[in-house]
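Figure 3 (text version): structure tokens given as input.
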């Protein structure tokens, strides 16, 4: 079932104003910082919040105004929320039972989905006998046993430890990529969840959509600071100019233009932490065309096999990240407060158009809802 949503919701000073589509069988990831409107959006889709104005259709069926139990919507959150007094099979059977399916048939459906999520062996146990990962498998089975036309996933891996999360992510990927008509909306802070599970992504900020598109494209070519941060990339805002990007302070960041970047228009320079070389402040570094800028070490944090350096200070070097080997950190005697020189090859920097403000688009969607 395809989902079409245009939602305007006011909660005090905050206003959510969004519109998006999810095709049948598609998975849309919703990213955004805390307070951006992700939970409010899910609440509107689930029927837990009533927006001031909305058009929400699922397979052509109008959901706006329907109570939560009549929407054919399933929801999975980071807390499994299993009934502690019921067996696992009865927990999962609760979903079809709530739709009026008979007891015996509901148990058949429950056992089927428990097998699908590799949790069949837990059928006769109680929730208190399961680990966090096992309980989340059961929660997935319960959500799917309801045969929802729309599946809402609210940070489903956030509460799992590093050993359990990959297994549940793989389970969700297998279930969500099976042929079918179910539409899925996933809220997550983890770009790996979005990349592994979602076809499309939208990024919220202040109740508006500021980025949208195919997941891999958005996360490899971010246009906002938040998206760059969760994607693990550096982003410098400014204006596209001949040879690169002119920052707000007038500095030039040399780079390669993306096909849709235009001279004189707002733009962002994007590059990976691995593209940033770090030298002592007094050293020059001749060679191929490079961007060089003074910076101050802010933090040094383990990041897999490397140490991620984050800068502080003023100018376009503030807030940049560089990946270094532990040996390089020791050799350079780096610590917070150390003044260094950063160098980035122009060929590793891509200039993309900046995202325009979404007020005009939001106003257009509000007018369309008002006419409905």
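Below: residues designed for each position.
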């Amino acid at each position: 079932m395809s989902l079409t949503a245009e939602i305007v919701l006011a909660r005090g000073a905050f206003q959510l104003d969004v519109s998006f589509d999810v095709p049948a069988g598609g998975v849309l990831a919703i990213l955004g910082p805390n307070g951006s409107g992700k939970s409010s959006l899910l609440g509107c889709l689930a029927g837990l919040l009533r927006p001031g104005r909305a058009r929400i259709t699922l397979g052509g069926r109008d959901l706006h105004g329907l109570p939560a139990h009549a929407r054919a919507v399933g929801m999975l959150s980071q807390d499994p929320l299993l009934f502690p007094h019921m067996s696992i099979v009865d927990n999962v059977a609760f979903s079809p039972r709530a739709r009026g399916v008979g007891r015996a048939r509901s148990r058949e459906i429950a056992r089927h989905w428990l097998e699908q999520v590799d949790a069949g062996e837990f059928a006769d146990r109680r929730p208190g006998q399961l680990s966090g990962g096992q309980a989340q498998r059961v929660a997935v089975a319960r959500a799917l046993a309801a045969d929802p036309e729309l599946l809402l996933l609210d940070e489903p891996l956030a509460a799992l430890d590093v050993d359990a999360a990959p297994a549940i992510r793989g389970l969700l990927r297998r279930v969500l990529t099976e042929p079918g008509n179910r539409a899925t909306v996933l809220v997550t802070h983890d770009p790996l969840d979005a990349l592994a599970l979602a076809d499309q992504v939208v990024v919220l900020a202040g109740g508006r959509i500021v980025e949208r598109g195919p997941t891999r494209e958005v996360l490899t070519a971010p246009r906002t600071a938040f998206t760059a941060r969760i994607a693990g990339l550096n982003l410098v805002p400014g204006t596209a100019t001949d040879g690169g990007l002119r920052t707000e302070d007038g500095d030039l960041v040399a780079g390669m233009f993306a096909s849709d970047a235009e001279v004189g228009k707002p733009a962002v320079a994007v590059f990976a932490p691995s593209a940033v070389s770090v030298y002592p402040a007094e050293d020059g570094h001749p060679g191929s065309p490079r961007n060089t800028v003074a910076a101050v070490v802010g933090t040094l944090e383990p990041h897999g096999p490397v140490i991620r350096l984050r800068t502080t200070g003023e100018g376009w070097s503030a807030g940049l990240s560089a990946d270094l080997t532990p040996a390089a950190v020791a050799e350079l005697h780096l610590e917070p407060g150390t003044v260094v020189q950063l160098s980035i090859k122009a060929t590793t920097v891509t200039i993309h158009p900046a995202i325009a403000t979404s007020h005009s688009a939001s106003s257009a969607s509000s007018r369309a809802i008002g006419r409905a």
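Confidence is low (pLDDT under 50) at residues 357-372.
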